[in-house]
């Protein structure tokens, strides 16, 4: 169950008592506030709070004294200019705070983005729930033969069934021992901060994650990419939908220039110019390594 009854009651209470405000409001994000978007089998992402909107980005860029000093079309053009030329500071004026429930191994990838404020559920003080990420059968893949950190074809038949059985059995057994170690019935009980070390990396944790829009875009550019690991990519894709509602003009520019765009090396750009001029270019004549050429061809087709 992604949300506990207590969490759902807290959400319902917060949404039932709206308050008037003078600060910038994004109608799209207001509709998202507190609602939990399910991710994976037990996870979710929900917006706790946010600051700023598209107009706030433009206001910071112009250092103006008020909102609405320019037409919406001018604001959108400015935002696209800022994104196109890699200006970051105006986007840093917007912030969002998310509540995320995710498997520990996904959290270890996520925390590598060190440009956010994080507070994680503490297993030193609290007892973790018996909730583990168990992949769907079509998400069980073999090791990629071309990418040391990627997946290949999906497992099938008896092998897939055996892997799923092991994942479920090992997770359940580890949690049984965790409960037995911390129990104080007929024994002292091991400290929670020690007992947690026996839990597997697919158990769920939770945290509050607060980040500005510039660094959020950087996170999404990497983690919403088709090459990102599936389990973190689905969280990034859920956040993309939230950001689209929050700052539609900024997200549109991000989608165009970052998610849908590409960056070429000097060698790659030179090869494109040669191709446009009608020259046949191969990996051997490109000056690129095989890996570089494969990635280049993935961009230009």
From TrEMBL:
Its cofactor is FAD. SUPFAM superfamilies: Thymidylate synthase-complementing protein Thy1 (SSF69796). Its EC number is 2.1.1.148. It catalyses: dUMP + (6R)-5,10-methylene-5,6,7,8-tetrahydrofolate + NADPH + H(+) = dTMP + (6S)-5,6,7,8-tetrahydrofolate + NADP(+). Binds 4 FAD per tetramer. Each FAD binding site is formed by three monomers. Keywords: FAD, Flavoprotein, Methyltransferase, NADP, Nucleotide biosynthesis, Transferase. The active site is at residue 223. Pathway: Pyrimidine metabolism; dTTP biosynthesis. Homotetramer. Catalyzes the reductive methylation of 2'-deoxyuridine-5'-monophosphate (dUMP) to 2'-deoxythymidine-5'-monophosphate (dTMP) while utilizing 5,10-methylenetetrahydrofolate (mTHF) as the methyl donor, and NADPH and FADH(2) as the reductant. This is Flavin-dependent thymidylate synthase. It comes from Roseisalinus antarcticus.
